[in-house]
Amino acid sequence: MTSRPSIAQLKDGDSDAWVWFFTEFSGQIAGYARRMGVSDADDVTGTVLETVARSVSNFSGSHSQFRSWVFSIAHARIVDDHRRRDRRPEVEFTDTHDRTQVGPDSLIGSGDPELEVAMTQLTEEQRSLLHLRFVLELSTKEIAQVTDKSEVATRVALHRCSKKLRELLSGGELEMAVES
Amino acid sequence: MISKHELKDRMQRATDESFSSPSSTLMERLPDLVKAGASTALPVHVRAGRRFAVVLGSVGVIGWLTMASAGALVGISAVGKLPDPIQQFVADVVGTVGIDLPDPAQARTDNERRQSDSTGSTTTSSVGGTTTPSSPNGNTTSPGQSGNAPGQGGTAPGQSGNAPGQGGTAPGQGGTSPGQSGDAPGRGGTAPGQSGR
Predict the structure, then answer these.
(1) What is the residue extent of each domain of chain A?
(2) Which residue among A96, A178, B62, B186 is least packed, with the fewest CB closer than 10 Å?
(3) Angle, CA of A153, A159 and A160, to the nearest 5°
């Protein structure tokens, strides 16, 4: 694996630096988009990568800030995708469920159906917070930057949704939700 | 309840991070996009100019707010409803451009002057508690003296114009005794050769 390049190398358009960036971030962005119920996660990921490449010359900051910046662009694209689908719902003969929610389609191929069902009980914002914290392992401060909220509000929200998901996975609430 | 650590493991395992690029050449295109983005990015001086414009705009907003406040202040001070120190300040400031506003210091001075003027030109009489203003022709009546001395009316009490019992004409006496005129013969009202003056 290519070693981590500097931000300056990325800004200069160094090919190796961008190979590293592509390898490091593309899968994470796609996973985040998929978790958030984006219908075409690959397309959104491609758009995010292009946006990062086009606007990296305006970025200044550390690697940690760069990571937050990249995921804040991804977050904005995902929110845009949800809004666009809210305005123009794609209704098909066999697909009439709310596509902004994680539905049965997204459980196909998932290694943990129970977790996926539990995630459907959470709001979009809660799913986003949990993914950023537990999968992408961003700090509370970085998550606050990504979601454009205060650090305190982010910490409180994270605590609440983490507790709720753990309760869903541990108790009978999940079974009731699945039955209903 | 499951631990946070377990939750993290489960979430990481369940995340599908596969990515099949919609465009096979996307990875090769990224460095070119960087250069294209850098060329279209605004130069530093343009960005600085925009920042300056934003600052100017905010200054404009502050200016309008200041003007509105000043207008309100002058409006209130024009009716003299402000506390004295503020009223004084506003009157001084606005006075420099020739606008007269009620000035508390000036009003105080005028009051004092008016008071002192009225004290110097009036005579206060302690007798009877009345103040007798000086007459315009200089004829003054000394205190305690009215037009007539007390007890001296135009007519003494008990004395009417005619004494009781004395009519204008004694009874039995006609106005003029026959053969006698009012004046002694040969004696006119005025001595001959003497005029009234």
Answers:
(1) 1-92, 104-180
(2) B186
(3) 90
Parent domain of B82: 45-119
Number of domains in chain B: 1
Report CB contact under 8 Å: B12, A135: yes
- Do the domain assignments include residue B126? no
Dump pLDDT digits (tens) for B150-169. Answer: 444 444 444 444 444 444 44
User: In angstroms, what separates the C-alpha of A166 from chain B's closest C-alpha?
Assistant: 6
- pLDDT value of position A119: 87
Question: Which of A2-16, B41-55, B92-106, B128-142 is most confident?
Answer: A2-16
Q: How far is CA A23 from the centre of its chain?
A: 17
The residue ranking higher by pLDDT, A54 or A107, is A54
Residue B20 inside a domain? The answer is no
CATH number for A1-92: choose from 1.10.1740.10, 3.30.470.20, 3.30.70.1730, 1.10.540.10: 1.10.1740.10
Distance, CA of A150 to CA of A171 (rounded, Å): 31
Euclidean distance between CA atoms A27 and A106, whole angstroms: 17
Which residue of B lies nearest to A137 if distances are taken between CA atoms?
Answer: B8
* B27 close contact with A: CB closer than 8 A: yes
Report, as an integer, the average pLDDT of B32-36: 86
**Token pair of A85 as six digits:** 């689908």
| Chain B: residue whose CA lies nearest to A9 | B31
Alpha helices in A98-170 (DSSP H): 113-120, 124-130, 140-147, 151-170
Residues of A in Cβ contact (< 8 Å) with B24: none
pTM for this structure? 0.54
What is the structure's pLDDT at B42? 64
**CATH fold of the domain at A104-180:** Arc Repressor Mutant, subunit A (1.10.10)
